[in-house]
Amino acid sequence: MANIKSAKKRIRVIQAKTLRNKMTRSALKTAIKKAESGDKESVTLAIKKVDQAAAKGLIHKNKAARKKSQLAKKLNA
């Protein structure tokens, strides 16, 4: 455990950010699974979630592009 006050604060901040990232990643996975059905609303929502995750740096921009392409392919097929 850290002794320095700033180190203790960093631990708290990192825990909060980790929790936020887990929530966002979980919501992203859920949206992608719901988009497997292929209806337009769920695919649009999943694409939006992918964009948000990439903008926050949660996933790489190329992974986001790949996921969006896969979702669009399911929508059009």
Element layout with pairings:
Layout: H1 5-35, H2 40-55, H3 61-76
Helix pairs in contact: 1-2, 2-3
Describe the structure.
With 77 residues, the protein is mostly helical. The chain has a domain at 39-77. Helices cover 82% and strands 0% of the residues. Helix 1 runs antiparallel to helix 2 (40-55) and helix 2 (40-55) runs antiparallel to helix 3 (61-76). The longest helix has 31 residues, at 5-35. The termini are far apart. The mean pLDDT is 94.
Please give a handful of descriptors for the protein shown.
elongated; mainly alpha; 77 residues
The shape is elongated
State the secondary-structure class.
mainly alpha
Q: Please mark out the parts with pLDDT under 50 across 5 or more consecutive residues, or reply none.
A: none
- Share of helix among residues? over 70%
Question: Would you count the extended β strands for me?
Answer: 0
Brief rundown of the structure:
The protein has 77 residues and is mainly alpha-helical.
